[in-house]
Design goal:
flat; 7 helices; binds iron/sulfur cluster; mainly alpha; de novo design (two linked rop proteins)
Length: 121
């Protein structure tokens, strides 16, 4: 049900703003991955991060609320999600922020909202 809602949001996104246009599609892909039994706990973290970006950067309520079905069901039915995980203890080896640090220093551009995994609010 939550996966179907995320596909609804991806389909209904008008495309006016990039965070919603791209983020709702990414969210639908993540929910497909979880439904297919190919997820890891990192996906829960990534959905929270995606929600933070969508809430801050989307123009209207569709983008603001697109992650709610996923987040609410993960919060209330987490064991049901966990039973479908392929990897229970997956920790990503690639650190995007560390990899981008030299480029950010070189260009002197460091948008706090573009960081993943840190809470810059
Ligand atoms: S947040 Fe609203 S305005 Fe922006 S792309 Fe989504 S539906 Fe369109």
């Amino acid at each position: 049900m939550a996966r179907n809602f995320t596909h609804f949001f991806a389909h209904e996104s008008c495309g006016f703003c990039t965070p919603c246009r791209v983020g709702t599609s990414l969210l639908a892909d993540m929910m497909d991955k979880l439904e297919a039994g190919k997820g890891s706990p990192q996906d829960f973290t990534e959905i929270q991060e995606l929600n933070r970006h969508l809430f801050k950067l989307s123009h209207c309520g569709l983008g603001h609320s697109a992650c709610n079905p996923a987040l609410e069901t993960i919060a209330k039915f987490r064991p049901a999600y966990e039973r479908r995980l392929l990897h229970k203890n997956f920790v990503p080896a690639f650190d995007l922020d560390a990899s981008l640090a030299p480029a950010r220093a070189l260009t002197q551009r460091d948008d706090a909202a573009a960081h993943l995994g840190d809470d810059h609010e």
